[in-house]
Amino acid sequence: MIGFLVRRLANYVVLCLVATFLAFALASTTFDPIAVLEQRNPPPPAAVLDAKREALRLDEPIPQRFLSWVGGVVHGDFGRTVTDRPVADELPRRAGVSLRLFLVGVVLGVVFGVILGVVSAIRQYKLSDYLATLFSFIILSTPVFVLGTLLKQPAQSFNELIGTNYLQTLGESTPGFDGSWFASLGDRLRYLIVPTATIALGQIAYYSRYQRSAMLDVLGSDFLRTAQAKGLTRRRALFKHGLRTALIPMATLFAFGFGLLITGGTFTERIFGWYGMGDWLVVGVATQDANIVATVTLFIAVLVLVSGWLSDVLYAALDPRVRV
Amino acid sequence: MTVTDDGAATASPVDPTPVTERTPSRGKLVLRRFLRRKSALFGLVVVVLLYAVAFSYPLFSPWDYAVPDYLAFLTPPDGSHWFGTTKIGEDVFAQVMRGLQKSLTIGLLVGLLSTSLAAVVGAVAGYFGGWVDRVLMWLVDLLLVLPSFLIIAVASPAFKGESWLIFVVLLAGFSWMITARIVRGMTLTLREREYVKAARFMGQSPLRVIAKHIVPNMASLLIIDATITVGAAVLAETGLSFFGFGVQPPDVSLGTLIASGTESAITYPWLFYFPAGFLVVFVLAVNLFGDGLRDALDPSAAGSRKREKKIDKGERA
Amino acid sequence: MTAADKPFDGPVLEVDDLRVSFPSEDGRVTAVRGLGYAVSPGEVLGIVGESGSGKSVSSLAVMGLLPDSARVTGSIRFQGRELLGLGDAELSRLRGRRVSMVFQDPLSALTPVYTVGDQIAEALLAHGRGRVSKQQAANRAVELLDLVGIPNARERAKAFPHEFSGGMRQRAVIAIAIANDPDLIIADEPTTALDVTVQAQVLEVLKTAQEVTGAGIVIITHDLGVVAGFADRLMVMYAGRAVETGQVDEVYTRPRMPYTLGLLGSIPRLDAAEKQPLVPIEGQPPSLTDLPPGCPFAPRCPMVVDACLTEEPPLSLVGAVGAGEEHRAACIRSADIAERDPAAAEVFGVATIGEPAIAAVPRAEREVVLSVEDLVKSFPVTKGTVFRRRVGEVRAVDGISFDIRAGETLGLVGESGCGKTTTLMEILGLDKLMGGRISVLGEPTDRLDKARRKAIRRDLQVVFQDPQASLDPRMPISDVLAEPMQVHGFSAARIAERVPALLDLVGLRREHGSRYPAEFSGGQRQRIGIARALALRPRLIVLDEPVSALDVSIQAGVINLLDELKAELGLSYLFVAHDLSVVRHIADRVAVMYLGKIVEIGEVDRVFAAPEHPYTQALLSAIPIPDPAKERVRERIILTGDLPSPADPPTGCRFHTRCFVYAAMPEDRRSVCVDTEPALNGSGDHSSACHFARSREVV
Q1: C-alpha B79, offset from chain centre
Q2: Phi-psi label, residue C64: left if phi above 0, alpha if psi -120 to 50, beta otherwise
Q3: DSSP for C114-160?
Q4: Cα-flanking dihedrals φ and ψ of residue B101, to 5°?
Q5: From the list A146, A281, A301, which residue is nearest B280 (CB)?
Q6: Which residue of C has its CA nearest to B200?
Q7: Is the dihedral angle over the CA atoms C8, C12, C18, C21 positive or is it negative?
Q8: Residue C116: partners with Cβ closer than 8 Å, 6 or more residues away
Q9: With B128 labelled, which of A304, B64, C18, C325 sits at a CA distance of 20 to 30 A?
Q10: Number of CB pairs < 8 Å for A and C?
Q11: pLDDT (tens digit per residue) in B93-120
Q12: How close, in Å, is residue A121 to chain C by CA atoms?
């Protein structure tokens, strides 16, 4: 068992490394930071460009550059940006911003998605099912960058209604806000609501579709019939036996849903002016910075694998058949 | 009773079994199930209509997407500029149609390419198993770890100024993995099906077994998946173009249009709502169509049992 | 006190003019059309019919467990109280307490995420809230598990359903059903999904359950053998109605409806001294969406007259009224049948099938078509789905030997998991073996090059078990039949000529070639599978349970076809089956497998008449005989427990853990069974592998 988990972990580490290397190599071959510098007006002197080239080790072969970057990562050094600031300085803050968005989004998505899906399945072909299905389809067909912009409108209407700018749609906290820990939390909440709703809506729609069909599968199952035959009412049998079993496939979906979340997060961050990891990636590509790209890739790879691992654990927790 | 083992056998050793009246063909059955679903029919009609309009717009619109009207800057929709104009006087209707053309073409191509790739990789991995399977699935895992968005964004400087077809290849190259996994899973089941075993035991070669017995039996899945992928690809394309990583100016796609309209969504709503609306309606239509297809082609799928209940309701009412 | 709690001395269950219909793609399906029956306290009613006859639907209607889309009319009275129209809450107070049900498929009948003990206790808690504590319920669950014969019940109660075998799960379901001491138990095909030995065990448990609870039992089955020794009364259903009812002995000995007659004649009999032809009931049950007027059985009935097509005959009294019990049949010709009292074969016009010409040649002089020597095959055992890892090895086949001569049929039998399918796959693989040697037509398979292997495949063909899965649903039948010929390079003209000939050969029409598999019934698909196997004119056909997925009446037709083809074409068969009565009917020799070993092998009549190995004896004794009188006096050997895990087989004689001979022996004589593996020994063409082999008559 231990050996197995170690092998699994080793595979994860290798996957992370290879993924990061691929992104790094791709970035290093397609990016040309010197060209970006050259286009400045007035153009920097040749000596400056040479120094830059030297600092960015652009003359070394890519694998070697990657290895030295990885060597740094082990010691907490993620290299320097094109503008010569340590990547590691900005990392914790940006990672925190993204994680806050992801975690709240995922929790809301799973909880409400499951509820919506179950209600939909049990009330199949009633009005509420049609509405839930329509909602999911529309949300799943609306890209996050459209949804975010659309949500700004009701937020504005809400603000007009209550007369203050309670819901904020730009930034993650009021600049220079000073107050108690609690007040600061309240301030952050004002900035959190609309972006979180943007990301959570997609997650809710995604999980509810699958929960609905998982629940429908269970509705026709033999064991539900057995539960009723022993004297449980339909409702009790549905919740105790049906829902519990229909949750199992959700564990697998969790891993896939996370990919959706990360891409969605990138858009959300950009639209609402949050400086998180997704935003950083866009900045990294724009400034042709391989170190930033590699760092973001590593972050995402680790997140995806952690979610994959969590999904495995969740699966084992929900389904006695796969427990060892 | 005599049985000649070749040519025209005159008598049969058993009484012929009558087949009862002919059941309706599969095609008819699928069509019937599909037509019964209003939302799917709606989806199909909208998709076809959008393709038709997007490619025929020059026939009935006086404006070209790239030629500005210097007499109309930021005019709201009116009789001349149906969807209004941009700040340099481009006709938004022509732009949206042109963007729709690009997005739809990219979506269609990506859907086809990615599903074909998924079918080949998944079926080969599932059928052969062993190290072929392990290598291919490791590749799938690797690509799943890297969100396609990231890779294409990183690679985007390389295809700046290149043909948008490279963009199509990249999009397709990063959207086949989950389907490939599903195909592999189905292949594992199909491989144990008795008719596949029968083909193997009669001496059929592995590649022929895949081509003749395995892939055709996943046709429903592949058709459905290709449809859904068209929707997903359009979303991915517009998303990347939104950030400037996809379709490059002077060409336009729905994504680039939405990107330039987002800033002024409140002040000049037509710049945002027209491209965004078309995008959402198209993807929604594709998804509804795909969902209806799934119901019609794959009646064992969860969605179809309910049909019965629905009919019953209708009867009771 | 409600009405249901008062003692009631009428029938436990009275069903009257029950009608059930469902919506479907092609319109409303009327699954039950005016069904009426009654069950007295302590009585066992057997309901028999083919799939689709409405027998399960009617019982679900009694439980109130039909989907919402079903429309139910008529009357269902339980102890005098009308159940139709009761709400879910009221019904749930009855279900599991007064009426309980055992379902067909034990594998899916239990919720996978709760322990077996909890699920049994739940039945008690559901009806005893406030009166029964959780601890009491848990203890009672253990007692119940013990009662239904689960060894080590206290431990096993903590297991999850997936850790139970099919038979054990069915026992657990029975334990749930009897937990509250019900007045009526409905068992819907409780043994269909199980092996014969387990089937016998489960039937014993049901009998025990009846003795313990004194409940009335409705047992639903398609197998007339199963109910022969168990039921008091019988009801035969066809197309949603009862077509014959009466006392079991009366119906079995004097069937008055051609359908019942056919059903009885279609069963291969273990006790048949000489080979009798089986009676196939050709055709399919009618579609229940739009039933034409007249007797629904008329299109398949050999005795049909014009009057049958005009009006559906009512269920009316036939023959003598004996012992206060009425024998009724729904047939206008029942008087004719009573008068002549014909045999089924006579009515259905089936002729006896001859022997192949080669059967006249002594066995020793015939060519060896297939020989298997010391075949070994093992699989790695992995554990866990998410955390998969290798934990050991299963010796699925552990050194077996047999041969098949030209024109001969060898039946290979055993419970599921005994290694018979693995053996078959190893033969068909024509590949390198882990151990031993297989020769097809004298050619060892491990040294074949690609071309030779392909050449041998022409002579070695296969017919599979599942008619649903054995034909590619995307191919028209003519393509299905053409495929093997294309692979082996037949010319297009030759193929075009041969396809219709093959269809003729298996009793299908030529114009069927353009149709798709989905348009055929199970029996017809199996015929197509056989035609495909015949396409290359093979010498040896391997049949993997070719009739076990078919209804008995259809099965008979396929068995007859196989018999006839063998006689006409001089084929050899390797016939894998778990049903010994089918094997007795079709095979010349039989080999019995247990845990990867052959325990008894020999000429079929000798083995069946005087089985020597205790396992063979138990297998034979577990097969029900469709004759109530014989069945009641038969001594049944019930094996204890399930097949041990092949990953960890018992030492010495692998059968000793379940062996009744071993169990009855004094301690000092047992050691040889535990320590030494017995070898196959015997005289003539009959040998067995048992240290204490002693022949015994069990049929």
Answers
A1: 35
A2: left
A3: S-HHHHHHHHHHHH-TTTS-HHHHHHHHHHHHHHTT-TTHHHHTTS-
A4: -50, -55
A5: A146
A6: C429
A7: positive
A8: C110, C145, C156, C157, C159, C160, C161, C164, C169, C172
A9: A304
A10: 103
A11: 888 888 888 888 899 999 999 999 999 9
A12: 14
What CATH number is given for C3-231 in this structure? 3.40.50.300
Alpha helices in chain A (DSSP H): 2-30, 33-38, 46-55, 62-74, 87-122, 127-141, 144-162, 181-219, 222-229, 234-237, 244-246, 248-271, 277-286, 290-318
Query: Residue B24's CB: how many other CB atoms inside 10 A?
Result: 13
Number of Cβ within 10 Å of residue C355's Cβ equals 13
C69–B contact, CB cutoff 8 A: yes
**pLDDT tens for each residue of C271-298:** 876 667 888 888 778 888 878 888 999 9
Pairing of strands C368-383, C435-440: antiparallel
Mean pLDDT on B6-14: 34
Size of interface B-C (CB pairs under 8 A): 133
How far is Cα A70 from Cα A127, in angstroms, rounded to an integer? 56
**Contact A321/C at CB under 8 A:** yes
Residue of chain C with shortest Cα separation from A242: C111
Kindly give the pairing relationship between strand C184-188 and strand C216-221. parallel
Q: What is the dihedral of CA C674, C679, C685, C686, to 10 degrees?
A: 0
Q: Name chain B contacts of C477, Cβ cutoff 8 Å.
A: none
- Please say whether the beta carbons of C346 and C339 come within 8 A: no
CATH superfamily of C363-548+562-582: P-loop containing nucleotide triphosphate hydrolases (3.40.50.300)
Encoded tokens for B186: 């189905």
Closest CA to C396 of C593, C685, C221, C558: C593
Q: How many whole angstroms separate alpha carbon B41 and alpha carbon A230?
A: 43
Rounded Cα distance between C553 and C556, Å, is: 6
Specify the residue for token string 């900045």. A283
Domain boundaries, chain B: 27-58+86-304
Q: Using the 8-state DSSP alphabet, how is residue B265 labeled?
A: T
Please report the DSSP string for C412-475 in residue order.
EE--TTSSHHHHHHHHHHTS--SEEEEEETTEEGGG--HHHHHHHHHHEEEE-S-TTTSS-TTS
Least Cα distance to C327 among A96, C337, A34, B298 occurs for C337
DSSP string computed for C616-653: HHHHHHHS--S-HHHHHH----PPPS-PPPTTSPPSSS
Nearest CA in chain B to A148: B262
Touching check for B157 and chain C: CB below 8 Å?
A: no
Helices (H) and strands (E) in chain B, counts: 13, 0
For chain C, what are the domain ranges? 3-231, 238-347, 363-548+562-582, 595-699
Closest by Cβ to C561, choosing from B14, B217, B308? B14
Residue reference for tokens 């899945």: B221
Q: Mutate which of B17, B133, B312 to disrupt the C interface (most C C-beta within 10 Å)?
A: B17
Q: Are strands C241-247 and C233-238 parallel, antiparallel or unpaired?
A: antiparallel
For residue B146, give the nearest of C414, A309, A251, A22 by alpha carbon.
Answer: A22
| Residue A133 pLDDT > 50 | yes
First vs last Cα of chain C: how many Å apart?
52
Distance from CA of A205 to the nearest CA of C (A): 27
C-alpha A274, offset from chain centre? 14
pLDDT of residue C196: 82
Contact partners, residue C364, CB within 8 Å, separation at least 6: none
- pTM equals 0.82
ipTM of the complex: 0.81
Taking 50 as the pLDDT cut, the residues of chain C under it are 1-4, 323, 385
Q: How many angstroms separate the Cα of B188 from the Cα of each of A169, B184, C368? A: 49, 6, 36
CATH number assigned to the domain covering B27-58+86-304? 1.10.3720.10
Give me C423's structure tokens: 């053996």
